[in-house]
């Protein structure tokens, strides 16, 4: 298939590549080749990278467009989001196919990801009619108090590529329906998918300049964001990516008295209690630990298994993992290739952290799947892509790198516990706080686990992965700053509360000073006949 050319879009799609507002000559920041990780010879997109000036120009263009967009009635903005959802639905198979081709996500998972956009848009259509404020009684006569939700202004959104269309929709749909304009910087290794999603938004009626697309690498993006914050052209930052970069983004925004929306990494624990249904727990671990090749922020990180069921559970999981089908993502497989070569390189560094006290299970070997390092039952041609063996590491210790760090690859570690309090402590110890799960048949265990674990999202008898469009998504600690995406909770990220006090008394009434006083008789005591004793 022919590669598409992806350029930054400032204003409208017809202006893609227009350098009128750029001070840097196009091409100075080079070109990125977005390759199909399952077939590396397949170049999906040739991405013309831009620099900080392009990001700043896009933010300034968004600032101008946002004024008019905010004046469009919210229910009408909701209809634009509705059209976006319907266009995605009409192009569901094509968009899912592009996701599979560009990042190697299995097609069935890609279809589910696209469905999440549709669900998100369906939800936020109604928010166009539910951006409620309140009327509040005043403490003075002839005066009325109101509260309103106002758009924040321009949102700069930087997203990762492991969920190249679902996660951006979590930002785009609420930001647009609330009356904001957006500068979106997607991952360059998912450039074609980003352009396809943006095209559907533009065709749904998003006005010129309200959604701008910028292709840039990390450092130029950071410098462009800094310049836009200094310029006053960005009012809200949304970032989905690694904890390390999220920390830098948070620090930058703090200099300008802004609170970003940070959705970061995870080292998500799954506790298997002694009364768990083990086959169900194995199924949940398999999906959340190795689905998408372990390249989800909600992927299972540490299995914390009760000592009494450890051996049986690990034996069953090892067998299930060895039987799992790995291979070409266009076929029925548990997972396909690594998303991009940089993630393959990062995963190989974590493989080097396997220590002599670990017991390695799950496959005949570790590392990249090759002719000399084969995987039994591999589906397709392993020589064409970035395919890696699944790894189950038993015997983790709390001081191990593999216990403490997000590995972002097809690897899960196992440790044991004796008491629920110990399991909760082990789950919280790495310092992340995105998702957690417990498998148990005792409701008391489930609720006590929920109370003690610091994760923003908790599952009982379900996996650590999987989010519904109307629930809050996000984490704490190294996983985020407490902000939430999805559902009504994300509205707080893209609106600001504004109050109005309307005095129609014809005179100046001063709060706390001109308030009518009612003085109770504090020295009054009930008479004898109204008392309950003689």
Automatic annotation (TrEMBL):
Active-site residues from the entry: 263
Entries under Gene3D superfamilies matching the protein: Aldehyde Dehydrogenase, Chain A, domain 1, Aldehyde Dehydrogenase, Chain A, domain 2
A molecular function (GO) term: aldehyde dehydrogenase (NAD+) activity
EC number(s) from the headed UniProt entry: 1.2.1.3
Keywords: NAD, Oxidoreductase
Source superkingdom: Bacteria
Complex formation: Homotetramer.
Family membership noted in the UniProt record: Belongs to the aldehyde dehydrogenase family.
Name of the protein described by the UniProt record: aldehyde dehydrogenase (NAD(+))
Organism from which the protein derives: Actinopolyspora mzabensis
Taxonomic lineage from the root: Bacteria, Bacillati, Actinomycetota, Actinomycetes, Actinopolysporales
């Amino acid at each position: 298939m022919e590669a598409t050319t992806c350029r930054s879009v400032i204003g409208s799609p017809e202006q893609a590549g227009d350098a009128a507002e750029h001070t840097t000559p196009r091409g100075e920041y080079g070109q990125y080749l977005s390759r199909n990780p399952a077939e590396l010879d397949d170049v999906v997109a040739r991405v013309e990278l831009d620099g900080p000036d392009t990001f700043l120009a896009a933010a300034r263009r968004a600032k101008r467009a946002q004024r008019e967009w905010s004046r469009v009635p919210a229910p009408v903005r909701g209809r634009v989001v509705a059209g976006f959802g319907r266009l995605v639905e009409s192009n569901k198979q094509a968009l899912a196919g592009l996701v599979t081709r560009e990042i190697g996500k299995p097609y069935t998972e890609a279809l589910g990801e696209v469905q999440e956009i549709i669900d998100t848009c369906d939800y936020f259509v109604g928010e166009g009619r539910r951006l409620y404020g309140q009327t509040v009684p005043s403490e003075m006569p002839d005066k009325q108090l109101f509260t309103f939700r106002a758009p924040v202004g321009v949102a700069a959104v930087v997203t990762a590529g492991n969920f190249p269309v679902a996660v951006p929709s979590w930002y785009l749909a609420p930001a647009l329906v609330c009356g904001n304009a957006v500068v979106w910087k997607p991952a360059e290794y998912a450039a074609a998918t980003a352009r396809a999603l943006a095209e559907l938004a533009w065709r749904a009626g998003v006005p010129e300049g309200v959604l701008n697309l910028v292709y840039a690498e990390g450092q130029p993006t950071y410098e462009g964001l800094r310049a836009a914050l200094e310029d006053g052209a960005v009012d809200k930052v949304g970032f989905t990516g690694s904890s390390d970069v999220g920390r830098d983004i948070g620090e930058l925004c703090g200099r300008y008295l802004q609170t970003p929306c940070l959705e970061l990494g995870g080292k998500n624990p799954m506790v298997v209690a002694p009364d768990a249904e083990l086959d169900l727990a194995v199924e949940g671990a398999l999906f959340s630990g190795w689905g998408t090749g372990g390249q989800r922020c909600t992927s299972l990180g540490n299995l914390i298994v009760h000592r009494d069921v450890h051996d049986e559970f690990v034996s069953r999981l090892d067998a299930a993992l060895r039987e799992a089908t790995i291979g070409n993502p266009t076929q029925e497989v548990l997972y396909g290739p690594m998303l991009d070569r940089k993630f393959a390189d990062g995963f190989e560094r974590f493989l080097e952290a396997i220590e002599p006290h670990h017991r390695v299970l799950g496959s005949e070997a570790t590392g990249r799947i090759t002719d000399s390092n084969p995987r039994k039952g591999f589906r397709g041609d392993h020589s064409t892509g970035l395919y890696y063996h699944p790894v189950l590491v038993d015997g983790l210790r709390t001081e191990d790198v593999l216990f403490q760090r997000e590995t972002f690859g097809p690897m899960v570690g196992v440790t044991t516990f004796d008491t629920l309090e110990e399991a909760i402590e082990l789950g919280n110890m790495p310092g992340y706080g995105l998702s957690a799960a417990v498998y148990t048949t005792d409701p008391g265990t489930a609720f006590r686990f929920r109370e003690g674990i610091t994760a923003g999202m908790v599952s009982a008898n379900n996996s650590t992965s999987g989010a519904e469009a109307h629930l809050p998504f996000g984490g704490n600690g190294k996983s985020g700053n407490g902000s939430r995406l999805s559902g009504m909770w994300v509205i707080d990220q893209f609106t600001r509360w504004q109050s109005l006090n309307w005095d129609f008394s014809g005179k100046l009434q001063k709060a706390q000073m001109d308030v009518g006083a009612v003085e109770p008789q504090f020295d009054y005591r009930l008479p004898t006949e109204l008392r309950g004793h003689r």
